[in-house]
Write a structure and sequence with these properties.
Elements lengths: L1 E4 L4 H11 L6 E4 L2 H7 L7 E4 L2 E3 L2 H12 L7 H25 L8 H20 L9 H15 L9 H10 L3 H4 L6
Parallel strand pairs: 1-2
Antiparallel strand pairs: 1-3, 3-4
The structure holds glutathione.
Glutathione binds next to helix 3 and helix 4.
Length: 185
Amino acid sequence: MQLFGSLTSPYVRHCRIALNQGERPWTMEIADYAFSGANSPTKKVPFLKDGALLLSDSTAILAEVRQQQGRDFLASTRDWEIYCTASTALDTAINIYLLEQNGVVAEHVPYLARQADRLSSCLDYLESLDVGFDASPTDAQIRLACFLGWGQFRRRFEFSNHISLTSVCNKANQWSAFTETAPPT
Ligand SMILES: N[C@@H](CCC(=O)N[C@@H](CS)C(=O)NCC(=O)O)C(=O)O
């Protein structure tokens, strides 16, 4: 089983955590922009190859990995809501980041102002859900921690005034499966 991606991607990080929790051997293959563009239909990372099987989105990868492990992926509607909201916030933050790297300034584009608003309202909403971070965290909690960790790593957004989100981050940073997959500094 081969996971293709970068060591800085929060989606790849979530998949690495899940794969490390299982027994099956797997390898991490570093894929740059050009490689993912040529080898994945989504032109994104992560993607996974397992024999003839190709999975090109972290959610499909996680569903498959958890099924192979005999574990729940997202066991409740509340878990889905947390996972999807954290993923939307992450997509939004990364979209703004990549556009800025390409010279697009958010204030000059109305849709990007909406994206910035979306990121802010998702942070407030996730705070209100009081998600927590268990000793054996759910994939909803892991996704939220990967999102917040990426925001801190890239200094893309601030949530120190969000008590519940700060607590998720602090607890995740005491979990070895999370710290072992931290982006390289
Ligand atoms: N929905 C995808 C999102 C993956 C994603 O956005 N990956 C970023 C890296 S963190 C990427 O490869 N972006 C390249 C691009 O947008 O061209 C998933 O969950 O796997």
